[in-house]
Amino acid sequence: MNKETAEMLIFTFPQFFDHFKKKYKYPHSQLSVGEGWSNLICKMLIKLDYHRESVSKKYKKHGTTVKTDFVQIKEKFGTLRVYHNTLVTMEPKSHQRIRKIDMWIRDIMCRRGFAKAYWAFYRWRRRHFETISEQVNTIIGNAEAKSAKICERCGEEGERCRPDYWVMTLCKKCENKLKKKGEQNDKLESGLHD
What we know:
single chain, 194 residues, alpha+beta, 2 domains, two-stranded antiparallel sheet
């Protein structure tokens, strides 16, 4: 992502980039993805911000707040990867109970060799009830999944491919450009070795 776009995202959504700003001299350099995914990341940030505000309103009497801080945003194996820390303060008691029950069931079932059954239960439970931090994970996971169908260079519809040594998500036009560029580089290298 170019410097201007990255700085614009950090300026517009500073609540998500505290780690970037504290740890790195150039925080924009930690948004190491293609320009084509900038809209996808922006939409994810808007959803996370809306979620943060709606949680604060919904659980106002509890004093619940959500703080999501990105550690790294990058491309890996042709898809978006978002590493983050999410802190939920004053989580509602129902959410705390669900997490404790979940851990208790996981502990019992996995110790007795029923790990597959536990994960089936977990998926069922998440379809019917998600804790606040799981909702954040769902928003981020959806953006990561969508990235596998969006060209990381231009933002058009794309698919995962391997134009050279790396797995990337590209549209046909960008894939062909990269292949041609790779062929030209191979010709130049072979000419140097002759």
